[in-house]
Amino acid sequence: MINMADIPTKCTEACCTGPRVELQLRPEEEYIQLAAFYKVFGDPTRLKILWALDESELCVCAIAELLSMSKSAVSHQLAYLRQNRLVSFRREGKTAYYRLADDHIKMILDAGTDHINE
Amino acid sequence: MINMADIPTKCTEACCTGPRVELQLRPEEEYIQLAAFYKVFGDPTRLKILWALDESELCVCAIAELLSMSKSAVSHQLAYLRQNRLVSFRREGKTAYYRLADDHIKMILDAGTDHINE
DNA sequence: ATTATAGTTGAACAACCGTTCAACTGTCAA
DNA sequence: TTGACAGTTGAACGGTTGTTCAACTATAAT
After folding, report:
1. What tens-digit pLDDT sequence spans chain A (118 residues)?
2. Which residue on chain A is closest to B55 by alpha carbon?
3. pTM for the complete prediction?
4. Closest protein CA to C1' of nucleotide C4, residue
5. Domains contained in chain B, CATH given
6. Which residues contact A86 (CB under 8 A, 6 or more apart)?
C-alpha cells in the first residue's frame, strides 16, 4: 500500500520552482562508507580509547584498567577501531600494543572538541 | 553475582608495571557530549543533507526531493541536526530554509573524506 | 605438563536508532 | 471558510549497537 505523504512532490515554492543550483548526489556507497567512519567516533568508550592512545601507545590491559572496563569489552571496541583503520597494533609476546593509525584522527577529535566548546 | 573476568586486574606486564605516562580521563559528561556530536555524522542520510546544505541553503521539500525521501523522514533528521547545532534555519511563510551552522562542519566532512580516500 | 595471564571471539540481551505512519499546526490562495 | 501545501511531531516497528558472559587461543613461567 502506498502512502501519498511519503512520495516527495515537486515543491511549488519559489525555492524549488525558481532557478537554483543543480545539486548532484554522489554514489550511495560513498555516504555509507563515510558514515561508517564517523560512527566510530560516536561512542564515549571509543572516544576515551582514542584520546588515551593519542597520548601514549597502550596495551589492552592498560586501557581496561584506565576505563574500569572488562578486557572483553575493550577488545571488542579495539577490533572495531581496527576494522575501520583508526588504530593499528603490534604484538610483543602475550601483549598487544595499540596506537592511533594516522593524523586525521587527532584532527577530527580536535575539531569536534572545538565545536562543543563554543 | 560478580564475574571475575569483568574486573580489570592490574596488568603485570612491563607496559603497566614499569614507569609510564600517567593518563587522566576527563569527566564522563564530556565524552558523552562529544560522542553525541560525532554520532550525528554517522548516518548516510544526514551526511547527504549536510553535503547538500554546504552547497546551498535548502528548504525541507527540496531536500526530500533531492534524496527521494519523505518530508517526514527529512524533517526528523533536520530536527536532530538542529538539536545538535549542526544546522540552523529561518522561516519564510510556509517554508523553512536550512543551512549549515558553522565552519567546523565542513572541516570535519573534509577530514573524513580524506581518511576514506587514502 | 601445568598453571596463569593477555587477549580474542561469538552468542545473547537490552537499549538505541531511522523510517514509516498518522495526525497535527500554520500559512497562503481561491 | 475551505482546501491545499510546507513542515512538524509522537508512536510504533524492525534493525543496529555496546556490553556481558562463556569459551577459547597463545605465550610465558614454574
Report:
1. 333 344 445 667 766 665 555 778 999 999 999 999 999 999 999 999 999 999 999 999 999 999 999 999 999 999 999 999 999 999 999 999 999 998 889 988 998 898 888 7
2. A23
3. 0.87
4. B12
5. 28-116 (1.10.10.10)
6. A40, A50, A100, A101, A105
